[in-house]
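[job 4471] stage=fold_predict status=RUNNING
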Amino acid sequence: MDKTRAWAAPQVERAGQVLQDSVAPKVSARLSAAARRLEPAKPRRRRWRKLVGVLMLAAAAGAVAAVVRIRRKPEVTTSAAGADADDVTPAAEMRDGQGRSSTGADADVSGRVRTS
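[job 4471] inference complete, writing structure tokens
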């Protein structure tokens, strides 16, 4: 019996090597393919979330730009030509013969009237 065991051990060893080298890669490939088929599909990435986020950032930036533009806008003043003739009195009419204002209003060099 010892002789038989001594002869069989190397034979089994060689058979194991042959199976490992030839059959095992095939079995491994089949198992990997089966695992890929069994695995559920990965959920699709939701790109609309990213798109909505970018659009919200753009809208916020636009709102900030509009607020800044409104704050920097100079106040609109009416010119003497656009105002009624009764409302605006030329500087020459306001002064008396001695260069003083007759109504208590002073006119500057540009002809605008300041009241004191």
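[job 4471] summary: The helical segments are 2-38, 47-72, 91-94.
[job 4471] exit 0
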